Amino acid sequence: MDVDYKGFSKALGERIRKFRKERGWKHSDIIANSGINDSQWRKYERGSGITAESMLKIAACFKMSVSDLLRGLGDGPIATPGSAPEAVFPVQATARNSVNTKPPAVPRSAKISV
């Protein structure tokens, strides 16, 4: 599966810019309230990669959850059309790494007697 991280980051950046503008905030307003420096904020709005810590700060600044910030963008990186999930994590069973369908054994010491 080809993953479109750039497309996801760009869509997130556009959303961040939209939320800022909807509130009538200038860059100086948002910088003062978010704890993120000006150049980094501008990169986020242009679609540069964003850390989880910065995403939490941005969501808090807009008084919303990270889920609300990401709503509609998908649950993660966007897969390109026609790609298959198994292309990312192909399962190759061999003698050394065969798939075990049994649940893991519970050690005797962990069992509870009634």
Automatic annotation (TrEMBL):
Transmembrane segments: none
Domain HTH cro/C1-type: 16-69
Keyword flag Protein biosynthesis: no
UniProt keyword annotation of Zinc present: no
Superkingdom classification of source: Bacteria
UniProt GO molecular function: DNA binding
Name the record gives this protein: Helix-turn-helix domain protein
